[in-house]
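[agent] plan:
  1. take the single chain provided in the ticket
  2. run structure prediction with default settings
  3. attach structure tokens to the ticket
  4. add a short note for the reviewer (M.T.)
[agent] executing step 1
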Amino acid sequence: MPIYKTGKTKKEGLQKYHVRINYVADNGNKKQITRVVYGIDEAKALERKLEHEIKENQEMPIKKMTVNQLYDEYMSVKKYELREVTIYRKKSVFKNHILPFFGNSRIDKLTVKILQEWKIFIEQKRLGIIAKRTIYKEFSALINYAVKIEYIPKNPLSKIREL
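[agent] step 2 finished; step 3 output follows
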């Protein structure tokens, strides 16, 4: 990774350096971190530290998160934003129609094919069209939350036509 020496700026006799680290985040976006330090030894130490932090953050178990874990996190956030009745309805939809099918599935392994099979499974249930749409929208909201928090890069459910 590059360490750049800058102009004539010095502090306590030490040269000013820009330490720049380029990396690709979990969601596929290219990112860059730039820090300023004085002294070549400090620059090399900072470079090693930043590279270690990035590597450590990229190996976090977020990629192994299941739909159940995502649901628990999502509901803990939503309980402060929504009324109790709304939370109760959401929980009912998830526990009856989504979690039995996807509970232990990893969110990064949700494919369009699997989601299409789920959609067919929901369509075969003896439910009204409004109930089916509600189920679809709740699951889509959960996946959109995962995208917003950057657990996954995009919502694969958006490729499937709504019920």
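[agent] step 4 note for reviewer: The two ends are 49 Å apart (CA to CA).
[agent] ticket updated
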